[in-house]
Specification:
Distance between the termini: 156 Å
Shape: elongated
Order of helices and strands: EEEEHHHHEEHHHH
Low-confidence stretches: 324-347
Number of helices: 8
Structural class: alpha+beta
Amino acid sequence: MSRAAISFPMLGDFSFNPSNYISIGGFRVYWYGIIIAAGFLLAVIYASKRAKQFGFTPDNILDVILLGVPLGIICGRLYYVIFYWKLYQNDLSRIFDIRDGGLGMYGVLFGAILALIIYSKHKKVSILAFLDLICIGFLIGQFIGRWGNFINREAYGYETDIFCRMGLTLNGETIYVHPTFLYESLWNFAGFILIHFLSKKRKYDGQVFLMYLGWYGLGRMFIEGLRTDSLYLFNTGIRVSQLVAAISLIVSLMLLLYNKIRVQHNPMDLFVNRKLAQEAAASVVSIETSEGQDEESAQTDGASGAAEGSSAEESGEEHTDGDAGGEDQDAASYGGDEADDSENGNT
């Protein structure tokens, strides 16, 4: 179906058949990769802009990307290959060709979370606070990235006559299917808007991440049931992503309710507030240290001035004593001269 013409009856009687790649210097660059990269870039920009509100810096975001991108791709690909092994068992070289797609979203999430855990442990920062920030970026990447599936004519659903159905025409034959890529893109966009605003009123680290798991799990659980290309848990007939979505939804709801009902959270326990308090305390210590150094300097200067004044007084006293001694000598000499004159007169 990758070469099928696409149509949407609700938008009018027309169709289009875009290529799923562009050629640059004889090398094919697939739209799937370009769209994924665009979503990733916007997610990074968003996370960098809001990093300070969660106690981080843009540099923290860039640092974790260096680890998160390769781990996300590797885990996403492994997730897809493991549960779609029949496509690769006869040609293992295809495992490394991801330009056409073939990344399991939950695998990508697992890789990204693993990177965050490793980075947070190394830098001694809050893992949950980091997950709160990054998961909102996940939604940006997901609602944009699903349009890569649209270009590839993949991730669509069963045949239907629903008003928003998508037509796929190949060799003169047209089928109308659920545009599940569109459903998930719109669901993730709505989740991004909702969680963006709710994140500004979070009560504890990890709350936003739980919201994300619940929201994404709820949508994916239903949308996955409409798809025709689902990954199955080996030969059980159970859709892997639907199972993971259901577990994510249940666990997140339980934890959110538990924290809502049973736990009294202090906003000062948020990582960002603890970090601000530490910085404020460090600033106070720095100011007090600076003031102490100034006082010591002033005391040193005062002692030096007093010593110089004492030296000057002693020098003045010595000079006065010298003058007095000279006057006594002059008086004695004058008295002697008078005695000589008297003797001479008597003679």
